[in-house]
Design a protein that fits this description.
The structure holds 2 protein chains of 2 kinds. By secondary structure, chain A is mainly α. Helix content of chain A is about 55%, strand content about 0%. By secondary structure, chain B is of the alpha+beta class. The longest helix of chain B is centred in the N-terminal third of the chain and has 21 residues, at about 135-155. Chain B starts with 12 loop residues before the first helix and ends in an 8-residue tail after the last strand. The chains are: A mainly alpha, B alpha+beta. Chain A: Keywords: Electron transport, Membrane, Mitochondrion, Mitochondrion inner membrane, Respiratory chain, Transport.
């Protein structure tokens, strides 16, 4: 398990968050879920027709890359929600109640993609700074089925 | 490291090429046919190639084979794209993919002793490629696009591609390159790959490794691979020859190396005979010596126009062959004159050939045949089709070739309608 500090601050463009730590403790998560839902409803973004992932800061290379990976339909819907939300904000109005985003509609469509991009970057960093000992160890552990041929050349 | 003394005298490269092509026998490992060639020389490297019957002639959508070729060695269930590349670098290996009209070849070249790793890389490409949509967009399509554009800017590549299309229309006539006019979706690639990567469709060729060792390793590495013969295997229609003419203006933005080019070819829907192989060298076009055009009729003709070339080619396929000449000259006017001369040479091909010329051509053909297996591409190009057609790899026998048999084969070939492709200033270039 990664350290607490890494869990909180290691989320890249998603910003510092206790969520990974809370998720790792099922009991705590169960308790925290009600506060989480309370916050999401109170924040009011659902009343303007946004999804939670629309609020993620998008001016980072990682999020830009993740947005590129959305399907055309997802991209279109995202822009539509933003324009709709912007208009509601200008009018200082919420959408009619039947158009509010329901909790089950509030899917995290972007977060998994951002996490994928972050994981790729982390893997690249790991390979960039790795030591070759790793492979040598692996090679020593492996049974070589061509051992007869060894020393032939 | 290697002193010359270690190489025993009797083993010239040529001899080992012959002995190895005669002695090697294919075997089967868990449904995959396998063949290994042991190098007798001091080579410290081995190579493994997976030959897949998924060339452009099996395409379900235009360009899908080209896209699949570039999808090789991307993310699999075992390793990400980056990991595959970095591990290969650490082992000091080279991974490559090549596409022909009939086969897709996935190759790994590496130092001896690393067989296990590279075999598992190849096996995981076949069994568990992930085909991520974003990889198609970010990594695969840009390369596909640049390869297609590059092929378009090379008149000889473009001319041969178009010549195949004229000669065979569908199947073998499919272009090797994806085209912007026919978008390839991820689902196309996935379904094509599913048919292509089934065990019955795959053969493994190794060099620097014995057949026994290879088949043992293959049956353990490919054991978990997709073997379901139920998955729809790829189909192609049998080839028939059509022929025809097309004229393409040379793009004025093409680089200076793109010179006006013509291809004059004749095809047949039977496999290439030894007579045709010799005929190629009889017409020639390539000099055996530096600074001299040589004595073959084509190179004599090309010598009259500075900067031009005329080379005979023979492209053998499993059920067809395309024989012809690629002619190029610095300007379209020069090309027009040269092409007419080449056409008359082709028409009289094989007639009145002196015994001495035939002997020379047979010797050249023999050498070319033997030396082709010295490179990995040549070896694979010869062994792959042989494995799929059931087995043994023989070196071609030229004993039955004589002046009369060549002229008979040539007149048979020239009966068919010619395939003519002209690329350049089409208002100047001659018609067929």
């Amino acid at each position: 398990m990664p350290s607490l500090a890494k869990m909180i601050f290691g989320n890249g463009p998603l910003g510092p968050s206790f969520a990974p730590w809370i998720k790792s403790k099922p009991g705590l998560q169960k308790y925290w879920a009600r506060w989480s839902n309370f916050y999401k409803n109170a924040a009011g973004y659902r009343k303007k027709g946004y999804l939670y992932d629309d609020l993620i800061l998008e001016e980072t290379p990682q999020v830009q890359k993740a947005i590129q990976r959305l399907s055309p339909q997802q991209k279109y819907d995202r822009v539509f929600r933003m324009r709709q939300g912007l208009i509601q904000s200008m009018h200082h109005k919420d959408l009619p109640k039947d158009q509010w985003v329901k909790p089950e509609q509030d899917v995290r469509y972007l977060t998994p993609l951002i996490e994928g991009v972050i994981a790729e970057e982390a893997e690249r960093a790991e390979w960039d700074y790795m030591t070759v000992e790793k492979i040598q160890q692996k090679r020593a552990e492996k049974r070589n089925i061509f051992s007869k041929k060894e020393g032939h050349h | 490291m290697y002193s010359l003394a270690k190489v025993s005298r009797g083993q010239s490269a040529l001899k080992s090429a012959f002995s190895r092509s005669v002695s090697s026998k294919a075997s089967s490992a868990g449904g995959v046919s396998v063949i290994g060639f042991e190098n007798k020389g001091p080579a410290a490297t081995s190579s493994l190639t997976v030959a897949i019957k998924a060339g452009s002639r099996y395409e379900t959508t235009p360009g899908v084979a080209h896209v699949l070729k570039n999808f090789a060695f991307k993310a699999t269930a075992n390793a990400s794209t980056l990991r595959t590349a970095r591990e290969t670098e650490l082992y000091g290996g080279v991974l490559s993919a090549a596409l022909t009209r009939e086969h897709l070849f996935l190759s790994a070249e590496f130092l001896r002793g690393d067989e296990e790793h590279f075999l598992s890389v190849l096996a995981s490409v076949l069994s568990s490629s992930q085909f991520h949509g974003y990889e198609l967009k970010e990594l695969v399509l840009p390369v596909v696009q640049s390869e297609s554009v590059f092929a378009q800017t090379s008149p000889s590549t473009l001319a041969l591609d178009v010549a195949h299309n004229l000669a065979f229309r569908k199947g073998l006539g499919n272009s090797l390159y994806a085209s912007p006019h026919y978008p390839v979706t991820l689902d196309d690639v996935k379904s094509f790959a599913q048919g292509a990567f089934s065990k019955s469709n795959v053969a493994v060729i190794g060099s620097g490794i014995s057949t026994e060792a290879l088949s043992q390793a293959v049956s353990s590495a490919f054991g978990s691979g997709t073997s379901s013969p139920t998955s729809g295997s790829l189909k192609t229609q049998s080839t028939s020859y059509f022929g025809g003419e097309t004229r393409i203006p040379l793009d004025i933005h093409a680089p200076a190396t793109s010179v006006p080019t013509m291809v004059i070819a004749y095809g047949s829907s039977s496999t290439a005979s030894p007579d045709l192989k010799v005929l190629k060298h009889l017409l020639g076009g390539e000099s055996s010596l530096k600074w001299t055009p040589g004595v073959s009729p084509l190179s004599q003709a090309a010598d009259k126009v500075p900067g031009s070339s005329a080379k005979a080619f023979l492209l053998p396929y499993s059920d067809a062959a395309l024989f012809g000449v690629v002619v190029s000259a610095p300007t379209s006017v020069q090309l027009a004159g040269l092409a007419k001369e080449v056409a008359s040479i082709i028409k009289s091909a094989g007639k009145e050939a002196k015994d001495e010329e035939v002997k020379r051509a047979v010797a050249k053909a023999k050498f070319a045949d033997a030396t082709s297996t010295e490179t990995l591409e040549g070896l694979v190009a010869q062994a792959g089709p042989a494995l799929f057609s059931g087995g043994e790899i023989k070196s071609e026998s030229f004993s039955g070739v004589s002046a009369s048999s060549i002229s008979k084969a040539a007149s048979e070939l020239l009966k068919s309608k010619p395939t003519v492709v002209a690329i350049g200033n089409v208002s100047v270039l001659p018609y067929a």
